[in-house]
C-alpha cells in the first residue's frame, strides 16, 4: 500500500513497491495525461512535478514517495488550462501530434517556476524532453511567451 499526495489529494493505492509512479498515476488513479514514452527516463513524456521540480515518473518506484511530497500531474497543473504555459501553447499552436506535450508543458512550467525569465539557452538546457515531431522552436517560443520575454508576448 502506498499513500501519495497527488494533485492536492491524499490517495491510497495498493501496488508493489517497485511499481513506477507513472503506472500508479495512469492505471490506478486514472490520470492518463502523463504519457509512457521510453520507460527509461530519457524522453520526458512522463514528466510530473514532485515538490515543484520536474521529474520523470516512469523510472521512479512508488516506494520513493510518501504523502508529504506533492506530486502534480498535467491534470493538476491548472483546473481550467489557464496556466501561462498552457495559454502560450494554445496561442502558438505548439504541438503537432501532441503526445509529448503534457511532459513538455510540465517541464516548461517547472522551469518558469524556478527561472521566471529564462534565456533561450536556459530553455534549451533545462527542457530535455524529446519531441518526435520536432516542435522545439515552438516550445522555445511558447516558454518565452509565457515568461513575457518574447516579441509576441
Automatic annotation (TrEMBL):
Keywords: 2Fe-2S, Iron, Iron-sulfur, Metal-binding, Oxidoreductase. InterPro entries: 2Fe-2S-bd, 2Fe-2S-bd_dom_sf, 2Fe-2S_ferredoxin-like_sf, 2Fe-2S_ferredoxin-type, 2Fe2S_fd_BS, Beta-grasp_dom_sf, Diverse_Oxidoreductases. It holds the Pfam family Fer2_2. The keyword Iron applies. It comes from the Bacteria. Residues 1-77 form the 2Fe-2S ferredoxin-type domain. This is (2Fe-2S)-binding protein. It comes from Falsiroseomonas frigidaquae.
